[in-house]
Amino acid sequence: MSTTMNNKGILYLADGTAFTGKSFGERATRVGELVFNTSMTGYQKILTDPSYKGQIINMTYPLIGNYGVNETDYESERIHAFGLVAKDIAFKPSNNRSVMNIDEWLSGQGIPGIWNVDTRMITKKIRDEGTVKSVISTEGLSFAEAKKLCDETELRQDWMKEAGTKERFRIEGAGYRVAVLDFGIKTSILRGLSALGLDLHVFPYGSAADEILSVKPDGIFLSNGPGDPAAAAEGVETTRALLGKAPLFGICMGHQILALAVGGRTYKMKYGHRGGNHGVRDDAKGRSVITSQNHGFAVDERSVTDCGMIITHKNLNDGTVEGMRHGSLPVFSVQYHPEASPGPNDSSYLFDRFLSMMEGGRD
Amino acid sequence: MAKNNALKKLLIIGSGPIIIGQAAEFDYAGTQACKAIREEGIETILVNSNPATIMTDPGIADKVYMEPLTEDAMTAILERERPDGILAGFGGQTGLNLSMALEERGVLARLGVRLLGAGRNSIKRAEDREAFKELMLTIGEPVPRSAIATNMDECRDFIRDVGYPVIIRPAYTLGGTGGGIAFCDEDLSLLARRGMENSAIGQILLERSVAGWKEIEYEVMRDAKDNCIIVCGMENFDPVGVHTGDSIVVAPIQTLRDEEYQMLRDASLKIIRSLEIEGGCNVQFALNPENSEYVVIEVNPRVSRSSALASKAAGYPIAKIAAKIALGYSLDELKNYVTQKTSACFEPTLDYCVVKFPKWPFDKFGAASRKLGTQMKATGEVMAISRTFEDALLKAITSLEVKLDGLRVDSVSRLGDEELRRKIDACDDERLFAIAEALRRGTDVGTLYEQTRIDPWFLNKLGNIVRIEKALQSEELTVESVREAEQTGFTDDEILRLSGVPREVLQDIRIYNDIFPVYKMVDTCGGEFEAVTPYFYSCFDAEDESRVSKREKILVVGSGPIRIGQGIEFDYCCVQGVWAIKELGYEAVIINNNPETVSTDFDTSDKLYFEALHTDDVMNVVKKEHPLGVVIQLGGQTSLNVAENLAKRGIPILGTQFKSIDLAEDREKLRLLLGEMGIPTPDGYSVTDEKEAFEVVEKLGYPLVVRPSYVIGGRAMQVVYSDEELIKYMDEAVSLSAEHPVLIDRYIEGREADVDAVADGEDILIPGLMEHIERTGVHSGDSISVYPPHTLPNDVADMLVEYTRRITRRLNIVGLINVQYAWDGEKLCVIEVNPRASRTVPILSKVTGVPMVKLAVAAMLGKKLRDSEYGVGLYRKMKLCAVKVPVFSGAKLADVDVALGPEMRSTGEVLGVDEDFAGAVYKGFLAAGMKIPTEGGFYIGLRAPDRNAKTAEILKEYIDCGFKLYASEGTSRFMDEYGIEAKTVSFDEVMQKTGEEICGLINVPEVANKPGSNSFDIRRKAIERGLPVLTCMDTAKVFLEAIRLKKAGAALRYRTLEEYLCNA
User: Fold this and answer.
1) A286 contacts on B by Cβ (under 8 Å)
2) At the fourth CATH level, which superfamily is domain A160-362?
3) Which residue among A128, A315, B521, B807 is the one 20 to 30 A from B775 at the CA level?
4) Does A341 touch chain B (CB under 8 A)?
5) With an 8 Å Cβ cutoff, are A94 and B528 in contact?
């Protein structure tokens, strides 16, 4: 049931900071990792992106819900984020595709939201102190109750194990056969791969390398997904076994898992990259692109170059690793999102790069 | 790819005078570009004829040519300087057109000068409609069906195919000059003809109308490596049909889904890449709200008004980065100047909402049609920032200084339902308020959307404001309702008016519950990275980010939007003031709301507050910063207006105190004071009704100067010659402002002079005197004026200095003062005292080398003039002559007269500088864009008072110069009397010959600005044909100087300002 727009909602941070705002969406309480996202458009895609599982999203853009919610902008079947924090909510949206407002949508999906809080203050707090365990509640919880709940709750790190498909499935295509390892894949990635005519065999988390190789893939794709890549031991193991069997392309968590599989390390960033405006330099192109980003962990540069990987992409702002390739094998990955959704489409050429790798592999 | 080291010397073209469609934004862009290039160690040369700009100040470029932006002048300067390249993209359409002309004439190739930034092909393909359309089709970007026409038959053919409505746009023009939407044959023939006349190449574009679609703009940047970014996307509140310069514009884009946003972003990148622009460009789209279909409307391959807005809205210095790109840098080599750590190759993300609101000149142009369309009419704009759309919108409205601080306009509330509906359809400058009124009366958003095509999201936001209005009116005030109203942007005054509670009650609620704004930073990145720019806006939120330093600080109150009577010169003064404050070791804080200007650039002051200049907003900043003092004499009438309220609250005002300001501003008090001092003023009286007025006529006789008791830009001032005119004026003026009396002064016909001085409380320094060409009665802002005076006798000049010194002492002026005098050959009278910076301050500073504002600020802070290197008294006369020529945006406003009068009409000015008077006059007219005919005919039409011997002398000189004269019947008789040959012509004949045999007008009308009168039509026709229209005999006389020089084929010499000054 939708809470009325004037009921109280609270956001309680593990360090004791508390915010009171108005509630929207579902009457509910959730504990999650509070992160911020700087995208000015695309809230529907962000909320349905499985990589946000377990996270409460604070939007830096203050006016959220302007164009409502439609039937197409889904990155998965439902909202994965645990809560939404905004400065101002449009209860009367406007767009030719809108079928409901964001308040109705969140309540239908069981997700609490709070608005009319100082989202910039929250952002700066996360920037200065890092992402933080937090409680969002629209049920009239007191701060003391929220604190207790916060203290008692341990955040899960292995969401990738359940964010993706539970069953193997196939999206048929006339082209190369690609095995997709699903850590919580975004629909746009599947759409991007399909658009190349690929025959997609999507495997759930924990699938063994043998099973995957049994479909005789021409290429292997490692998807995005939520959580700490170090918690995905099975995924890393499988990936290691698949290396060298076929051209491989990883995105986001797929990129991190590849790093771990080759013997590298990943680390948790202070507050990650979430948004659609970072410049990333692509050495192969000799120029830079604006990227769509959503990650809280990153690949340690030295750890992978020591294992024979070559860094191909770097973030222009902080110099973090945004892409790499194997020194000898047709294997590459990026930390950011060439499928965009939301964000700039500048990097869609990477899907073509994957395709040409498979073409090379077949010769 | 790094800086191209072969570039040692570059030339930048400025945009020339301010006209509608090309305003202060180019001073901002040009200043940034000069600084960006100069800091690379490259010699920077600037050519600009506009003296009121910061960019032409010493220290911005290495060399400044204040010379006309003509091909001849540019060619001579290029030959003299031999730069490695020129940058055309910072001088607006003027810069592009000029550089294209130089390129096409082969001048650039001959001299080996490279066109940097947007090259010839880029400009050509973006600017030439046909080439652009072709390119769009090649890259698969949709454009509206369109055709190019150079004659009426081609227009009619297109209509047969596509039908009405169609949009008409002339090729190569500014601000959509001559454009419009044609709904029928009649519109078509009018608009098409006008468009062809206005186009530099006689070409217009006819286009399928997408009126009613969403209008979306992207500011795009690209470097030579092909890196591309969007700096900011913007959405127009008003759908396609209203020129974007006349639209309320919102940043970022509000109503597009991510896919729609990315679709247009992709298109923008594709377009800038196909045009191969190295630098910035602006792409405008129309998006069908029903089905997301889009078309590309226009591309500007240069910095623009929109890029200035985007720079301020996003905190990203487009002009600066564009200049660096032109030097060879790539985006990913440059840093984000705001964070100083992250890369410039990123897309700014906003965590606030920006609203730009246009400032229209309709208060000055009473007769002008207020309808908004494809031809831009605004002279300036304001920008407001907040965390909600509602607050940003209401702040923007307050910033306009139209005595409004909400959505309620009395004249609109009084309309009947049907009238209101028609008002909304009329699409004029008050449409927003009419829509709010309709919402107040219960009209639903769906109906209003159908009627206006303004997106329901915006309409619902207006509905939200109206809902709060109603709650304040009908419910008791509570802490929560006050908080909500303040957060939504309601001013205290509006809350009081709506709720009817006493001010103390509201104040108590605010104080006890701490309902005060906090300041947030504009940082380009939504808070993701730490930023170092001190650029703030207010909002009602939790955290205040503005950290107040321990340094002593001084607050400068800015000048708000550019309007007629208060132009870019006051921004110049504010910027100079800020620099002077910094130089003296204080922290300089500025508050202003004009996105086009240098004063609101992020690195001009130590701290910038982007706010309305309402007393409350200034007080909030004062409360926050606790400045040592507030400077209110640099921002024109706007900043002076807050003086009283600040003084009442005990806030220290630096320099001249409020008491003195009040004495100078109140004509009655000033008259008495000057009387006591034995300084003459024109005899005059203040009256409140017609009876009293006629008593004054008895005493003084005609002609008389009549005006309301308050003054700005000579508003509603008039010289009347008869009872009839006086009665008419009284009727209009009294209804205009019932509470203010009307002032009636004797009209002193004579020469007028401007004196600007700096005072320190003991001494004064007068850098120079300026004499007007036109006689008294013509507004000083509209008259041509000359430095040094060319006819005033020396003893009169001495008297000017002495009077000014005495007035300054008596009024205890500290800082700047401007006094206007009239000299009728016998007596010297004071006609106005302005205890503040004036329009002439930048001119005098430049032509004498005396940094007036800097000295004034030093004086305010206790420094003495006699200790400065410039001394006291009248400064030595330079051996140069400078002539200021006003520039009118006549071609933009079809129903506005160009005849000179006491009401100011010019939007900008140029300066002609030369070694002698004739050369300076000639250059002034050239720079103003005036055509100077050397043969052909002049039409002469004179009002009775001007049919005299002096006039006859002037007209004879025209005959001597070889012109044939045509005249109206009455004027013809007068000319006969003096033996001047003229052909008598009827109105129809004049209209038909104008632009053909007749190549200029000398036309002094009885009353200016009477649309529908014959003489008005003749003047309009001439203006639209670009012919000189001289409406005062004094102007006609001085115009001969230019004609003679041109006829003699005199080669003008072009020199830098510094060279002229060294001469002296």
Assistant:
1) 225
2) Class I glutamine amidotransferase (GATase) domain (3.40.50.880)
3) B807
4) yes
5) no
Rounded to an integer, what distance in angstroms lies between the CA atom of residue B1015 and that of residue B833? 35
A275–B528 CB contact, under 8 Å: yes
> B348 and A277: CB-CB below 8 Å?
yes
Chain segment B851-877, per-residue pLDDT in tens:
999 999 999 999 999 999 999 999 999
Provide, as residue numbers in chain A, all residues whose Cβ is less than 8 Å from the Cβ of B227. 279, 287-288
Cα angle value A341/A347/A349 (rounded, 5°): 120
Going from N- to C-terminal start, the domains of chain A cover 8-152, 160-362
Q: Which CATH code for domain B548-654?
A: 3.40.50.20
Weakest-pLDDT range from B333-337, B836-840, B1002-1006: B1002-1006
Helix axes B417-426, B445-452, angle to 10 degrees: 40
Q: Rounded to whole angstroms, how far apart are CA atoms B776 and A249?
A: 80
CATH number of B931-1047: 3.40.50.1380
B530 touches chain A (CB under 8 A): yes
Interval B807-822: pLDDT, tens: 999 999 999 999 999 9
Give the integer Cα–Cα distance in Å for A209 and B56: 71
Q: Do A61 and B258 touch (CB under 8 A)?
A: no
How far apart are the C-alpha atoms of B509 and B408, rounded to whole Å? 24
Domain A8-152 top-level CATH class: alpha beta
Active-site positions of A? Answer: 252, 337, 339
Answer for the pair A137, A9: CB distance below 8 angstroms, yes or no.
yes
Question: Does ipTM top 0.85?
Answer: yes
| Residue spans of alpha helices (H) in B678-792 | 690-700, 723-736
Residues of B in contact with A275 (CB under 8 A): 349, 526, 528
Q: pLDDT tens digit string along B204-221?
A: 989 888 989 999 999 999
pLDDT at position B128 is: 85
Interface test with B, best of A67, A73, A123, A348 (most B CBs within 10 A): A67
Which H/E stretch holds residue B494? helix B492-499
The pLDDT value given to residue B177: 63
- Cβ-Cβ contacts under 8 Å, A345 against chain B: 262, 265-266
Which residues in chain A have their CB less than 8 angstroms from residue B213's CB? none
* Stronger pLDDT, B183 or B279, i.e. the higher one: B279
Q: What is the pLDDT at residue A361?
A: 56
pLDDT < 70 positions in chain A: 1-6, 361-363
The minimum CA-CA distance between B626 and chain A, rounded to whole Å, is: 24
pLDDT of B725 over the 90 cut: no
| More confident call, B1 vs B96 | B96
**Chain B nearest-CA residue for A124:** B527
pLDDT tens digits for range B946-977: 999 999 999 999 999 999 999 999 999 999 99
Q: Which residues contact B140 (CB under 8 A, 6 or more apart)?
A: none
| Yes or no: domain B9-116 corresponds to CATH 3.40.630.10 | no
Closest Cβ–Cβ partner in A44, A118, A123 for B542: A118
Chain A contact for B385 (CB, 8 A cutoff): no
